[in-house]
UniProtKB/TrEMBL annotation:
Residues 34-95 form the tRNA-specific 2-thiouridylase MnmA-like central domain. The keyword Nucleotide-binding applies. This is tRNA-specific 2-thiouridylase MnmA. GO terms for molecular function: ATP binding; sulfurtransferase activity; tRNA binding. InterPro entries: MnmA-like_C (IPR046885), MnmA-like_central (IPR046884), MnmA-like_central_sf (IPR023382), Rossmann-like_a/b/a_fold (IPR014729). Gene3D superfamilies: Adenine nucleotide alpha hydrolases-like domains, HUPs, Translation factors. Keywords: ATP-binding, Cytoplasm, Disulfide bond, Nucleotide-binding, RNA-binding, Transferase, tRNA processing, tRNA-binding. GO terms for biological process: tRNA wobble position uridine thiolation. The keyword Electron transport does not apply.
């Protein structure tokens, strides 16, 4: 837990043990957009679907996150979710709930506890956000990146967030998610067969 880590840091005499938590998560949802508006320039752009069809206009990509459904400001006959953000085009891709799930992920900026990439492939557990559960995955470590194949689809895999790898209680390492390939949930059985056949990204 966070408390246990702070206690270990304190015993080791590390200054981080006394550092208070300060992050954007301490800003209430009501004031979140106002906080960002005061500090970041936002450029309105287009909402599009996976085929590139324009669905409407967004207020700026800084105000949206993968998996978001509410606050889009769109009238639609079905629920729409943010499934991808394309900052290079200033576009936000919307889709249905199924399109939020990914089974293949690439991570970069890796940090291995052993100090070097582990020989792969590795069967381990991976966690894509602090609130999510560990999920079984096959890891294919490379020199400066790793491909991760989840056995079950993961919801709202977000580029820029951390992914951490575990073997039981041991932390193997982690990295930063660089992309998550969208896969429909009904492809689950097919994907499992690919993994069993030593499928590698």
């Amino acid at each position: 837990t966070k408390t246990e880590v702070k206690q270990i840091a304190k015993r080791a005499g590390l200054s981080i043990a006394f550092k208070p938590s300060q992050d954007i998560c301490f800003i209430s949802e009501k004031n979140y957009r106002a906080f960002l508006s005061q500090r970041l320039s936002s450029v309105p752009g287009e909402f599009v679907d996976a085929q590139g069809v324009i669905l409407g206009r967004h207020q700026g990509i800084v105000f949206y996150t993968i998996g978001q459904r509410h606050g889009l400001g769109l009238a639609s006959g079905k629920p729409l979710y943010v499934i991808r953000i394309e900052p290079e085009h200033n576009k936000i891709v919307l889709g249905d709930k199924r399109e939020l799930y990914s089974q293949k992920v690439t991570a970069q900026k890796l940090n291995w506890v052993a100090g070097k990439p582990l020989p792969g492939p590795i069967t381990a557990a991976a966690k894509i956000r602090y609130k999510s559960r560990e999920a079984a995955a096959n890891l294919f470590p490379k020199e400066d990146y790793a491909n991760i194949c989840f056995l079950e689809p993961q919801r709202a895999v977000t580029p820029g967030q951390a992914i951490v790898f575990y073997k039981g209680d041991e932390v193997l390492g982690g990295g930063i998610i660089s992309n998550g390939e969208i896969k429909m949930q009904n492809d689950r059985a097919k994907f499992k067969n690919e993994v069993l056949l030593h499928f590698e990204l």
